């Protein structure tokens, strides 16, 4: 046992050096039952306060909030653009940060608020606590956090429901996206709550079920998910857009392909794709592949970022783990999302 513990300690130190490690173990909850939730997200206690006494010069609000659901409290930030304060229902995007990040950092790096302003889109940034994970990772690699009605998916879905009701959100246009551990959790939310989220965005993340503990998480990050994960995903599955750098040394790029394969399998797509090669304004190459179903509707989109590492493509250096040289992932995700409202 001592030899195994020493071996694990050496492995932990090795991976702790990674910039956005998506797989450190969570601190055990003092009351595991507080993670259990009904199959349908229930309302919790939602508290909002403006970060500043007055709104921004353009009339937008950038707020701090907290949400309590079945004994667990999540902090979050909420961006409400001036256009979204009108009476008409507006779209909403849930943004899940990566490890070592927080809501403010993720907002600054992705510049998603700037992109959402023109669309009148509300943007919700839930924040993982150090109590639940020492490096503020969403716990995507534990089975209890990969299921509907349990763990973090249940809490995040309930928070989304509560904010959507408070902000008069269009229920056909609620989306979720994330980076690394946040991308993995975004994929889990899309699979476990497909009636809630109209589309999903995953940047440098992993597919649901690619790990069941810390050891398998490290393996999936290093070499890609096991073959068994590429079995049929839950059906229905929301349309999905994926970004992944082919030089990512933190989360292997085969995870991006696995996410796309799962989406294509659900929609019964074998060879109905349109590919385009290009470069960002700063010269970084990419390959964009759009997949259509039998009716000609796009259901998946894959951006392979050539030479890119583990960072948000086209992000701003004001935030951590960004690659300013890449194509603007925020703008492209928003385009994809707004083209995919729920039709059922």
Automatic annotation (TrEMBL):
GO terms for cellular component: extracellular region. Keywords: Hydrolase, Plasmid, Signal. Pfam families: Esterase_PHB. The keyword Signal applies. InterPro entries: AB_hydrolase_fold (IPR029058), Esterase_phb (IPR010126), Plant_Biomass_Hydrol_Est (IPR050955). GO terms for molecular function: hydrolase activity. SUPFAM superfamilies: alpha/beta-Hydrolases. NCBIfam families: esterase_phb. This is PHB depolymerase family esterase.
